[in-house]
Amino acid sequence: MEVSPSLLAADFTRLGKAVEIINRSEASMIHVDVMDGMFVPNISIGFPMIRAIADIAEKPLDVHMMVMDPIRFISQVRDAGATIMNVHQEACIHLNRVIHRISEAGMKPAVTLNPATPLVMLEEILPELEMVLLMGVNPGFGGQKFIEATIDKVARLRSMIDERGLKTKIEVDGGVNIDTAPRLAAAGADVLVAGSFVFKAEDPVAAISTLAHIS
Ligand code: DX5
Ligand code: ZN
Q1: Residues near 60 by Cβ (< 8 Å), separated by ≥ 6?
Q2: pTM of this prediction exceeds 0.85
Q3: In which band, very low, low, confident or very high, does the pLDDT at 51 lie, cut at 50, 70 and 90?
Q4: Are 139 and 101 in contact (CB under 8 A)?
């Protein structure tokens, strides 16, 4: 299992330490949550902070944009050092254009779906995506309870991808823990984002390792 630890649950007064923890762990990438106070009722990390994280990160940055009209920020996200730019389907009127602009900017495009958004919204764009991120909670906050219907949604997306012979990865974000992770793996998830499970653990490196060894 690939693991993308979310810095949202880290101690923000020691963000550098959190990045170092991820650097020396079995994580595949670093998940950075950007919020605008409009698309979600919270505000988190901005571009100067992403740049500072990228400067010390030894793993690719997976930047989750919980913002309206993310097309406005493509060059800033790229210049801040992102490898993957994850945009919400619900926040883009012209999703096809957004995806192409992200690729043209040299990043890998990913699209996120809220729990209530059906998979069919991605049917046309799926072959062009590096990853689909399925939210396991309503976005905006860490530490929320996992929405069980996500398991079946992962399984259905797995079939959609496999039937079409695509390479698109399935990522899940929100409520990932020792109970939900094995079930998400069994349903066909490729990448798990984990905030609280990693950074509220006594040993975050071990928590990442636990998730990484789930198959
Ligand atoms: C929530 C964020 C998540 C968050 C997950 O809106 O997108 O990445 O950090 O937190 P946990 O793992 O605590 O549910
Ligand atoms: Zn996220």
Answers
A1: 28, 29, 30, 83, 84
A2: yes
A3: very high
A4: no
